[in-house]
Design a protein that fits this description.
243 residues, alpha+beta, 3 domains, 6 helices, 18 strands, Ferrous iron transporter FeoA-like domain-containing protein
Amino acid sequence: MPKSRFITLKDAPSGKILLVSTITGHDLALELAKTGLQEGVEIVKSREKVPLTALRVRGPKGDAILSGKMASMIMVHLDDGSKAPLMDLKPGEQGHVEGLTATTPLTKAFAILGLKEDDRITLLRRLPPMAYITLINQKKRIKIPEATAAKIWGRMGGVEMQFCSAQKGARFEVLELFGGPPRKAQMKSLGLEKGAELILEGVEGAQTVSVGEHHPVYVTTKDGLRILLHPQAARNTMVQVKD
């Protein structure tokens, strides 16, 4: 492949040395620079497929559950001085949020959960795929995937929390939905919207779903730093394949 050819990081070959040429989007470039990825840096794209497992973490506002997609966006500066994607941490490891490897409508969600830049964060444990059996407005019963349950913010008994932390049988008022317009429209089509009353009836195991093209992309810099990029960030990063 000619050296002069520019391609997106998403489409670039694995195992080759890649030179980061440009990053489309000022905000994205600033966020990625905080993690160590910027123009002129040489990286190698990994063939590794990242399992998007949900994580339970602890921040300044208490415990929170992050869907695999949310967790894959967070870069952590560990207490030993090293940096690593949140997905690479072991239970008990802690540090502070260094930045996000995406510009995302979920930025507000991270702030509400107490996981914005420089906030303390501890990985507590990895969670198996779950489905939340839910009664909506005393009329409709559905199973909500954990990734969706983590994006529903509301109030139960005067306490604000994620729906995935709700108590079985208690009334839960939806205050806000996390995510961009497509995600919110999808949730609204299920009856999940601001003001809705949810009652958690039970939780059961769910199947792991392969996300295909939506897999995050792992890259490694020359100094050994591993960075996990959201697929859209990888599409917005142009690279050259070095000889």
